[in-house]
Automatic annotation (TrEMBL):
Signal peptide residues on this chain, from the entry's feature table: none
InterPro entries per record: PPR_At4g14850-like_plant (IPR046960), PPR_rpt (IPR002885), TPR-like_helical_dom_sf (IPR011990)
Phylogenetic classification of the source organism: Eukaryota, Viridiplantae, Streptophyta, Embryophyta, Tracheophyta
Domain of life according to the entry: Eukaryota
This protein's record includes keyword Lyase: no
PPR repeat positions: 174-208, 276-310, 377-411
GO BP of this protein: RNA modification
Recorded GO MF terms: RNA binding
Full protein name: Pentatricopeptide repeat-containing protein
Organism: Adiantum capillus-veneris
């Protein structure tokens, strides 16, 4: 039994457990109710879904039949269908506002459900999606009924010309179809087409939703279209779309940061009702890339004060910042944090860590860190070898090169250019000739003038003539 002190200590936990239990009972109570309870129960369930979508499983991608639910509560297993006729009238509008593809379960007596095509969207299965499209045409079914799903499928699979044609042919007035096409253009790096599509959509009187704005803001980011981004920001604010849409807020921060408008990016982040690691990392990346290391560090510390744990991308930018400003102690502190979290074997993170030690002049510590990694890519070894050469430690560079090869890590052109420089400085002609043979066997000299120049320089520094042709 728990004593009085134990009960006092555990009281907050008991209250929280009781609250969760009551909430589960409330959600589940409709299961035993009669027909009159269904509308009220559905209203309650949908409100819970929109308030906390993370408490619900999204079953849409695994559906095999229309009768299977779209969402299922993680604790009570209560089901929800987006197309249920008895849904409260407000649910459809809210689903559309949040960018859910309402209308995906349209059926006719002769047709298969459009949910099959939506599954292809989720899995980006172009082959199956195209086959389903052909089946619709062969059966003489009304293609327009499936146009949202087809346009989205082609757009997500990168077949943008086909998606655009379908949208034009059917004169779609669906925000889902237009948003899918805009997102497709943005993802393929076609920012100008995305913006043109967005302007056509608005001209046709179709109101964008939060998902649309996320996609078109990404297009602005690609094109560095700051003025257009500001205009979109004003539209988003006037429609109140930022209030509960963290993805939209994060996209705005990223847009301003990548357009070099860091004060605006910081202001947007401060005004967000909810901030997460993505929003903070976008701002930290912006400051780091502009060489504003102190501001990046302040953001990192504020993020941690707010209890938001950094991810591998955050640490990568902070390590780059430490490398640029020579913040060796902070870099070592970050190394310790990363080691505790056991995420060091991410390729980009490992490279940033080695680069930090190299740029801070701590080459032996950089090599020690590199040798402990189970994931060792050539870029990390190149950074270390280049560091030794720049510091005038050519013998250590050669030893590092030998160690790298002993671990079956294949050198690339950058490795060879650097190590040939080391051979020239210490007049290691035998090693230089050996590397020349390796390069020739791999056929690397045929289209690489930089490598040919490095070889010629090595022979000149060693007062030797090449046995094989250099150029």
């Amino acid at each position: 039994m728990l004593g009085t002190c134990d009960l006092v200590d555990h009281f907050p936990l008991l209250i929280a457990a009781m609250h969760r239990h009551l909430q589960s009972l409330t959600l589940a109570s409709g299961m035993a109710g009669g027909k009159d309870d269904k509308p009220a129960r559905l209203d309650l369930l949908w409100k819970d879904f929109f308030r906390a979508p993370s408490k619900w499983w999204d079953e849409r991608s695994s559906k095999r039949r229309p009768g299977e639910p779209d969402f299922k509560h993680k604790e009570t297993n209560e089901p929800l269908w987006m197309e249920k006729r008895k849904n409260p009238p407000w649910v459809r509008d809210e689903l559309i506002r949040r960018g859910y593809p309402v209308g995906q379960l349209i059926e006719t007596a002769d047709a298969f459900p459009a949910s099959f095509i939506w599954t292809c969207c989720k899995t980006r299965d172009l082959q199956r999606g195209t086959r389903l499209h052909h089946e619709i045409q062969e059966r003489g079914l009304d293609e327009k009924m499936y146009s949202d799903a087809l346009i989205t499928m082609y757009a997500k699979c990168g077949v943008l010309e086909k998606a655009q044609t379908l949208l034009d042919v059917h004169s779609s007035s669906s925000v889902i179809a237009w948003t899918a096409l805009i997102a497709g253009y943005a993802q393929q790096g076609e920012g100008e087409n995305a913006l043109t599509c967005f302007e056509r959509m608005q001209h046709d009187g179709i109101s964008p939703n939060g998902v649309t704005y996320v996609s078109v803001l990404k297009a602005c980011t690609l094109m560095k279209a700051l003025d257009k981004g500001k205009q979109l920001h004003d539209e988003v604010l006037s429609q109140g779309l930022l209030e509960h849409n963290i993805e939209l807020g994060n996209t705005l921060v990223d847009m301003y940061a990548k357009c070099d408008a860091l004060p605006q990016a910081h202001a947007v982040l401060k005004d967000l009702s909810t901030r997460d690691v993505i929003s903070w990392t976008a701002l930290i990346a912006g400051y780091t890339q502009k060489g504003q290391g102190q501001q990046a560090l302040e953001c990192f510390e504020q993020m941690q004060l707010e209890g938001i744990p950094p991810n591998a991308r955050t640490y990568t930018y902070i390590l780059k910042m430490c490398a640029e400003i020579g913040a060796f102690d902070k870099g070592k502190e970050i190394h310790a944090e990363i080691s505790r979290q056991r995420i060091l074997n991410r390729r980009i993170l490992a490279g940033a860590l080695v680069e930090m030690y190299v740029k801070c002049g701590a080459l032996s510590e950089g090599q020690s860190a590199l040798e402990k990694l189970s994931l060792r890519n050539v870029a990390s070894w190149n950074a270390l070898i280049e560091g030794y050469v720049k510091m005038g430690q050519e013998k250590q560079a050669l030893e590092c090169f030998e160690l790298m090869q002993s671990k079956n890590i294949l050198p690339d052109v950058a490795t060879y250019v650097c190590i040939l420089q080391a051979c020239g400085v210490v007049r290691a002609i035998d090693k230089g000739k050996q590397i020349h043979n390796e390069i020739s066997r791999q056929g690397l000299l045929e289209h690489n003038k930089e490598l040919g120049g490095a070889l010629a320089d090595m022979y000149a520094m060693c007062d030797a003539r090449p046995k094989h042709k250099v150029f």
